[in-house]
C-alpha cells in the first residue's frame, strides 16, 4: 500500500470503516429513496414526457416543424448533438485517464461520470437520428450490404466517421462502466434481504466471488479497457469537429478544430459532472465521500480546459486575419458584431471570463458558487456550438441566400426533452445502482481516510 503525505487532505471524511462505506452507499438502493429524489424525479420525468411528445410530433410531421431553412440547414439539432457528445467526454476521461495516472480522487466520482457519459451519448445520438427526417431509415448510416435496400455508405464523408467514432466510444464506455459495476453488484447481492433484489443483483454480478484471482483479473481488464478508452476520448470529438473542418464554409474550415473541440468537450463534461455530483451529494447524503477537495480538483480541470478554449478562440481570430482570406475574416467580424452578436458575447463571457474566477481558492471550494458556475459553463458551451453552426451558415458565399434562423417551439421542446430524459435516466441510475464505486473506494480508505490519516500523523509525530 502506498503511503500518502499527511498534508494532503483526506478523501473520505469522518471515521468510516469498510462496513460504513457499504452501508452508506447501499442504503438508498435497499431502502426507500430520500424525499429529494422523488421531487427531482417528478420534475425530470415531466420534462422528459413533454420532450418525448415533441419528438413524436416531429417524427409524425417531419422536420419542417423546426426553424431550419434553405440556408441554415443545421441549427439547434446539430448544436445539441455536439453539445451532448461533449458532455459525454468527461466521464471516460475521469475513469480511464485518471485510472492510468493512479489518481485516487477519481474513486468517488468515476461511477457517476461514467453513467453520465452513457446517457449523454444516447441523447446525442437522438439528434442526427431525428435530423434525418425519416428515423426508420436510420440504419442506412451503417455499412450494410446493398441487399438490405440501402446504398453503400460514403466512406469519404466525415458524417460516417462520426457514426463509427461515436458507436465505438459508446460501446467501450458501456463495457468499462459495466465491468466496474460487477464487484459492487456482488456486494449488494450479498447484503440485501429481499429475495427479488437478491436474484436481480445476483444475475447482474455474474457470479462474482471476490477471491484474489477475480480481483487480479478485474484490475487487469480495467487497465486494458482504460488503455483502449483513453485514445477514444481524443478521437471522438476530433472526428465530430471534422464534420465542420473538412467543409469549405467560412468559420468552419479550420485546422484548430480537433484540439479546440476536445478541450471544449472536457470543459463542458466536467461542468456537467459538477452539476450532477453537487445535487446527488446533497440528495443521497454523500458528503463524506464527495468532499470539497473533489469539487476543487474538478474546478482546477475546469480552469485549465476553459483557458485552452479561450486560447483557441483567440487563435481562430488571429488566423482569420493572418490568412488574408476575406470570407474568413468576415465570418469572424460578423460573429462579434453581426445579428448574432448576443450569442457570441454570451459564449465569450461564460467560457473565457467566468472560469477564471476559479483562480480564487475561496470561490473554487465554494459549493454554491461551483454549482452556479457549472450551469454557466454548460450554457456557454451550448452557445459555442450555436455560434459555430448558425453564424457561419446564415451568411454564406451567396448574399441573396443570407437569412436568419429562428427556433420554433418544437426545436426548444426537443432540446428540453433530452435534458429531461437525461436526468430521468441519471436519477434512475442513482436509485438502483451504487453511485459511488464502493469497492474501489475501500481500497483507498486506509491511505486517504480521515481517521487513518490522523492516526498515521500521530504515529509519525511520536
Task: Report what the structure shows.
The protein has helices at 18-30, 35-61, 76-87, 89-100, 110-131, 158-191, 195-204, 212-245, 257-283, 292-322, 326-337, 341-353, 361-364, 367-393, 409-432, 438-442, 445-448, 450-461. With 462 residues, it is an all-alpha fold. The model has no long low-confidence stretch (mean pLDDT 86).
Summarize the structure.
With 462 residues, the protein is mostly helical. The chain has helices at residues 18-30, 35-61, 76-87, 89-100, 110-131, 158-191, 195-204, 212-245, 257-283, 292-322, 326-337, 341-353, 361-364, 367-393, 409-432, 438-442, 445-448, 450-461.
Using brief descriptors, characterize the structure shown.
mainly alpha, 70% helix, globular, 462 residues
Secondary structure: elements and pairs:
Elements: H1 18-30, H2 35-61, H3 76-87, H4 89-100, H5 110-131, H6 158-191, H7 195-204, H8 212-245, H9 257-283, H10 292-322, H11 326-337, H12 341-353, H13 361-364, H14 367-393, H15 409-432, H16 438-442, H17 445-448, H18 450-461
Q: Which bin fits the share of residues in helices?
A: 55-70%
H-E order: HHHHHHHHHHHHHHHHHH
Shape: globular
| Spans where pLDDT lies below 50 across 5 or more residues | none
* Number of beta strands: 0
Cα distance spanning the termini: 22 Å
Number of helices: 18
- Work out the strand percent: under 5%
Q: Could you tell me the mean pLDDT?
A: 86
Structural class: mainly alpha
